[in-house]
Amino acid sequence: MDVTTARERLEEMLAELDRSIGVLQGDPVAVREHSAADAGSDLTDADRAQAMLTVATTQRQAIMEALKRIDEGVYGRCVDCGSPVPEGRLEARPEAARCVQCQGKRERRR
User: Fold this and answer.
1) What's phi and psi for 104, nearest 5 deg?
2) Which end of the chain is more exposed for a tag (fewer CB within 10 A), N or C?
3) How many CB atoms lie within 10 A of CB 14?
């Protein structure tokens, strides 16, 4: 993927994430009278919203790092081994920082 296309896709993803983060940062529990069952449901909704916010924030950071790699001229190279990140991987995940092998090693260590 050429860097111009990558930048456009990453910036579109970033704008969408920023909108989602803005919505998720709103108060997930509206102020109203609750029964005990409603309070439990609201807590679950708040937990779910927090989990989605965490994922969106992590994704946003990965996109910002990918944009930085474009600016530095190293986009498309694995941050661990320096090998090219496969074109198909970048098409599917433009924010990908690692080649398939290094990403697999990283995930096995977790």
Assistant:
1) -60, -45
2) C
3) 17
Task: Determine if residue 76 is left, alpha or beta; phi over 0 gives left, psi from -120 to 50 gives alpha, anything else beta.
Answer: left
Enumerate the β-bridge partners of residue 77: 84
Which helix or strand (DSSP H or E) is residue 15 part of? helix 3-24
Phi, psi of 27 (to 5 degrees): -65, 115
Q: pTM higher than 0.90, yes or no?
A: no
Position of tokens 């997930």? Answer: 28
4-35 pLDDT per residue, tens: 999 999 999 999 999 999 988 874 444 444 45
Q: Amino acid identity, residue 47?
A: D
Q: 63-74: per-residue pLDDT in tens?
A: 999 999 999 999
The enclosing H or E element of 67 equals helix 36-72
